[in-house]
Amino acid sequence: MGNKIFYLIIAVVVVIFAGTFFYMNSQSNSPESLSDSGYYPYTDIDPEVISGPTVDTLDDENYHYNHTPDEIADITQEESAFVYYWSPTCPHCQAATPLLIEAFDNEGAELNQLNVLEYEASWQTYQIESTPTLIYFENGEEVDRITGNPGNVETYESFISEHSGE
């Protein structure tokens, strides 16, 4: 009888550990579990392969305008659009993004972002030489761009105003 109780206890412990393991594993695979806000725009990338620096930006509202490359292609084909190419490992992006966001808020324009760390093919597709890069598109064609951090909100506002017709 003693052996049966011993084996029963071992079986219960194994089941508890297995259940905990499967629960924790399923939670870590959920995109929403990567951030407190639940923001996860990388719908075409498995959450397990998203880089750590990108995960670190998921709760930063300055980076809540992200799209996939397919979405960016659709947006730029269908309408005039500003697209901001950035990388979470770029210190110039970290400095420029708050300025850019303020400029877009002041101008009332719509911003689209593309994370080139996660979408490396975008470097070649859009001929990005460095980040940050802001490109204005009309009818699917690039019209103008700003590369680098201008260091002030006014430069971004002027670029936005020039191309949004205001």
TrEMBL record:
Outline the extent of the Thioredoxin domain. 34-165
Q: Name one Pfam family in it.
A: Thioredoxin
Keyword terms: Disulfide bond, Membrane, Redox-active center, Transmembrane, Transmembrane helix
Entry's Gene3D superfamilies? Answer: Glutaredoxin
Q: Which residues cross the membrane?
A: 6-24
Q: Which family does it belong to?
A: Belongs to the thioredoxin family.
Q: What is this protein called?
A: Thioredoxin family protein
Species in which this protein is naturally found: Corticicoccus populi
